[in-house]
Amino acid sequence: MMGSDLIMYEEEFQRIDAELKKLYHQANAKVVFLVDKNGQLIASAGETHDIDTTSLASLTAGNIAATGGIARLLGEKEFTILFHEGEKDNIHISLIGQRIILVVIFDNRTSLGLVRLRVKKSSESLAGIFDEITKKVEKEKGEGKLEEALFAEISDEDIDNLFR
Amino acid sequence: MSFINYSSREINCKIVYYGPGLCGKTTNLQFIYRRTNPEQKGKLISLATETERTLFFDFLPLALGDIKGFKIRFHLYTVPGQVFYAASRKLILKGVDGVVFVADSQIERTESNIESLEDLKINLSEQGYDLDKLPFAMQYNKRDLPNIVPVADLEKLLNYRKVPSFEAVAVTGKGVFETLKAVAKQVLFELKKHY
């Protein structure tokens, strides 16, 4: 398979989760979530119960992809921040590294300035965690340990059974 | 580019339906959506024009079941088929794990099928993928119409890789799940092979 798969471990997931919760509180946001550029939801914090986060993740990634396409047409590498203003809710979307999208939904309990400030701080910590994941995956790949346990156990029959 | 999450014990994969305009990509997703249990599916999102032509993409998340305690999820996307949406079409292919090519069986769409398949190859290679190596399934749609190319000819024209191919009538659902299964299986086998 081409490209590299995104792999998330328990330990790093807990750290990401904690970072998102911190951002949610400090920015006084409604919802905070992380999506990978292909539209997969990685983690979320806040009032997510009545939001369809899966759809939101896929549309956000589509949004970033379209904006990235526009950027390249204009000779820019990427637009790293998107902001949509609504009547009640606003959405702040930013790119972390080249791969992860951080989304903050907020209302008039906070301000764009505060959100931007907190997002900037969190982005640095999150970028650090994702760097560590990349290193960990590479290390385990080098040692041949990665996913062996999981995928060696999956038989052709297991896959066939999914489609009965 | 799958997403393997050890924390939530999920494996997420992306499948893209490709093909010329009006070949039935969205219809495939609509049928899958209608015939799947509510607990297995999310919302079907369609970014379409007022005349119901796909503008950017359709999106349907599906949960297939569990393997060894891991939830297997597939995210199905369609691309906009119309020629002038080329830039958008490219974007949808990012991070793709498997492709379904939906061909329109009508004689007058033969050229469009060939063009679209070429377009797919080029767009994939721009993203660093090789169609010859990706999980891939072929669907010959609209088999119920009178003016259609024989399957043997379509095979010769389009199925150069000899991947699994299916005759379909997407509006009635004929061949729809068979096609999805064929590509999803290949994606999982590929993951297994990879690791």
Largest beta sheet of chain A: what is the strand line-up? 3-2-6-5-4
The CATH architecture classification of chain B is 3-Layer(aba) Sandwich
> What is the number of beta strands of chain A?
6
CATH superfamily of chain B: P-loop containing nucleotide triphosphate hydrolases
* Helix coverage percent of chain A: 40-55%
Distance between the termini of chain A: 26 Å
Estimated radius of gyration of chain B: 16 Å
Query: What summary fits the major beta sheet of chain B?
Result: 8 strands, mixed
* Biggest pleated sheet of chain A: 5 strands, antiparallel
Order of H and E elements of chain B: EEHEEEHEHEHEH
Oligomer: heterodimer
CATH C-level class of chain B? Alpha Beta
Helicity of chain B, as a percent range: 25-40%
CATH topology title of chain B: Rossmann fold
| End-to-end C-alpha gap of chain B | 13 Å
**Residue share in β-strands of chain B:** 25-35%
Low-confidence stretches of chain B: none
SSE blueprint:
The complex is a heterodimer of chains A (164) and B (195).
Chain A: E1 6-8, H1 10-26, E2 31-36, E3 41-46, H2 53-73, E4 81-85, E5 90-96, E6 100-106, H3 112-142, H4 148-153, H5 156-162
Antiparallel strand pairs in A: 2-3, 2-6, 4-5, 5-6
Chain B: E1 3-5, E2 10-18, H1 25-34, E3 45-48, E4 54-67, E5 70-78, H2 86-92, E6 98-104, H3 110-126, E7 136-141, H4 151-158, E8 165-167, H5 176-194
Parallel strand pairs in B: 2-5, 2-6, 6-7, 7-8
Antiparallel strand pairs in B: 1-2, 3-4, 4-5
